[in-house]
Every structure is written in C-alpha cells, then in structure tokens.
Design brief:
mainly beta; Immunoglobulin-like; Tachylectin-2, Chain A; 2 domains; globular
C-alpha cells in the first residue's frame, strides 16, 4: 500500500473507529469533552507569557540570529555583515567555549540554524530586499567538528528558490519571500517565511541532500507578525517566534497535534511575550529538553540593549502532542510516527499496562511483540505488518490512550 493510500485511509476511517471530531485540548476555549479526533478547530484567548532572562550573550554574538542545542551547549551565529563563524556557549553563563569557522562560505545573511542526528544546518536565506537568487543552506557534519575551542570546517550546500517568486527587482519592499526560520523534521527541512505584507508565514519543504532545488510549498497560516526563528521539540511541537511591527512586539506561535507533516492542521496558539523593552528583538529559538528551551535576542542599539538569552517552558500550555497522550503527572510519548518496523512507548512500564491493542483501519486486532527496553521505554515490533494506517491503544492506571500511527 503506498503512502498516499495509507494517508487517505487514515483520514477516512477514524470517523468510524474513533468517533467525534472537534477540539480535544482541555485548555482551549471551545474544548469538546466528547471529541476523540482533533480537527484543528481549537481557539484560545489572548495569552501573555513572561520568560526569565538567563544572561547576556558574549561580545562575539551581538546579532544572535539562530539558536540550537547540541553537545550540552547552545550554538548560535550572527546574521549579515558578520564573519562566517558560529559559536557554542554555556547554557547558564553564556560564556563561549567553541568557535567554528566555515571557511568555504562567506556569510551573506545567515538567519537560523537547526540540526538532525548528524549535521548542523545554517540557513543563508535572509532576503530583506527580495532580490536574492543565491539562497542556500549550509550543511556541516558533526563528525567534522574536532572538539577544539577553535575549529575550521567545510560546508556543503543545499541551494534553492521559491516556486511562487517571479519578481526579483526589489521594487516591492513589502514582499513575502524573506525567510529567517527553519527546522528539521521527517527527513526534510521545513522553512517558514517572514512575510512583510500580510502577517502570514508560508511553509516550504526542502530535502537535506546537497543539490539545487525548487522548494515545495505546503501551506500558510496567519501568525499576526513576522517570523524570525523556528524550533521543533522531541515530542513534535513546532515553535515559531517573531515580532510584530511597528513596535516590534515579540510573540511565539505554537503548532501541535497535527496530521503527518501538515504542520498547521492541528492546534495553533499565539503567545504574546511582553514587549521589545523586556525581550528585545528575538531572533533565535531552540528546545533543549522536553518542552523547555531558550530564546536569543540581538542587540538593540536604539534602546541601549545588549544581546541576551532567555529560558522558556511550555509545559503549562500544551497537554497533548502528536503521538502523545498525557496529564500533568503521567506523560506518555509514542514515537516515531510515521514509523517503519519499530515503535516505542516512553513513560510507562509493561506491568502498568492493563490492555494494549494494535488494530488496522478495519478494527481487526493484529499481532505484534513487546519488549521492555528500560524502566521508561517499551518497544513494539511490527515487522510482519504491511505499510498502512493503524491504531495503537492501551489502558494504564485507568486511562485509555488511543493514537493513530502510520507505518511506511
């Protein structure tokens, strides 16, 4: 069964097997307690959030424009008119311990960074005037980093263009082809535009393999501002940050509990993060563990602000994610989704399961094997099953957990 047919089955059969569509988030204004399938209709009131300052950034990072967590350090780089270096610094003090020069790629406008299991990616895709025809992403293998305080590496390049851009004249200053945000997810790079005209962001996808591509447009969503960085959590929360001119009011935009890689099909919530006086001009964001992470802001000379970084925790705002059912005291995560042969349940033990079933789209129970990997993780092996849409359910401590999964 090919992926398209599997995806259609996943859309069609839940109306029979799972029940009512509606808003499944108990924190939403329109929460429907009888709904068992999220339809992306949740609405939220105005949410004002304040995140604590950790420290100032080092002098080498006056314009921190991307942020990532790796090897127990925060990593960041500056944007245009700076050197082709990125830096690793301590999460508590901001002190730099690593400096890496990318010697084969002079910086044009580095705007964000992300990572997969073996590479850093830096987006040289800032496009303030809308005139660039040399947009690219730098890929740097982790194994090329020697661990020396001063290091030099070579990058390979993913070059791209937008399918919907035809005007490169720079005449229209309110264009929608700037980009300052991207994440790695499901073997691809997902870019989010910084629209200057309408308060939306557009979602594009690129492969991670070096080459020259036309990005694939997926969708757009109204964020009421301009997006400057993106992050993706281990439990599939997409976090976008940005600001809203003319006051440059900082905000965050959350997306979770969506369908497949259609990142705007599920819950969407906007957070107001104080003002530029408290948060500065925020330009970088990353998750470090769970729902916790960091935000960096560049210096604002007009306000006499130095570059700084802040910590955040989304735990009180999100009570469900893709592949996860949880309450405040007992979280369970189910991953990866889609999966191939093996799927994992983290946060529950075998002896705590009263019942566990794996059924197909017709409701037929299927065979699988269970293995307790450690105190927190159960492994389900489904190698004998064909590709397609399935439903995993289990009962633990009196609670029913019911999740739709896709085998590829």
């Amino acid at each position: 069964m090919n992926r398209r047919i599997s995806f259609l089955l996943c859309l069609l059969f839940p109306t029979v097997l799972i029940g009512q569509f509606g808003c499944t988030d108990p924190l939403a204004q329109n929460y429907n307690a009888s709904a068992t399938q999220n339809d992306g209709s949740c609405t939220y009131g105005t949410t004002n959030v304040s995140y604590p300052l950790v420290d100032s950034l080092a002098n080498e990072l006056p314009e921190s424009s991307g942020l990532e967590f790796w090897d127990q350090l925060l990593w960041s780089h500056n944007d245009s008119d700076n050197s082709s270096r990125f830096y690793g610094f301590d999460t508590l003090t901001g002190l730099i311990s690593r400096s890496v020069l990318i010697e084969n790629s002079p910086q044009i406008d580095w705007e964000d960074m992300t990572k997969d299991e073996s590479h850093f990616y830096i987006g040289d895709f800032g496009n303030n005037a809308g005139t660039r025809t040399n947009l690219k992403i730098l890929r740097i293998p982790f194994d090329s980093l020697t661990g020396n305080p001063l290091d030099t590496v070579q990058a390979v390049f993913i070059q791209f263009s937008y399918p919907d851009q035809t005007d490169f004249s720079g005449v229209n200053t309110n264009h929608n082809f700037d980009c300052e945000a991207f994440v790695f997810f499901e073997d691809s790079l997902h870019l989010f535009s910084k629209n200057r005209s309408n308060g939306y962001t557009k979602h594009y996808v690129l492969p991670t393999t070096p080459g020259t591509y036309v990005a694939t447009f997926i969708d757009s969503v109204f964020v009421d501002g301009q997006i400057t960085s993106a992050a993706f959590s281990s439990d599939s929360i997409l976090l976008l940050i940005g600001y809203k001119p003319p006051a440059y009011s900082p905000f965050a935009f959350l997306a979770w509990d969506y369908q497949q890689t259609d990142l705007f099909s599920g819950n969407k919530r906007r957070l107001q993060l104080g003002s530029v006086l408290t948060m500065g001009q925020q330009e970088g964001v990353c998750f470090s563990s769970g729902k916790k992470g960091f935000i960096s802001s560049e210096q604002v000379t007009a306000l006499n602000q130095v570059s700084r970084y802040f910590s955040f925790d989304l735990s009180s705002l999100i009570v469900s994610t893709v592949g996860m059912n949880e309450d405040e005291s007992h979280p369970w995560s189910i991953y990866p989704n889609p999966f191939q042969e093996t799927i994992f349940i983290e946060g529950v033990k075998l002896d705590e399961l009263d019942e566990i079933r794996f059924v197909n789209a017709l409701g037929v129970s299927l065979h699988f094997t269970l293995n307790q990997l450690d105190d927190e993780t159960i492994e389900l092996n489904t190698e004998q099953l064909s590709n397609g849409c399935y439903f995993l359910s289990f009962v633990t401590r009196g609670e029913l957990v019911y999740v739709k999964v896709l085998k590829e």
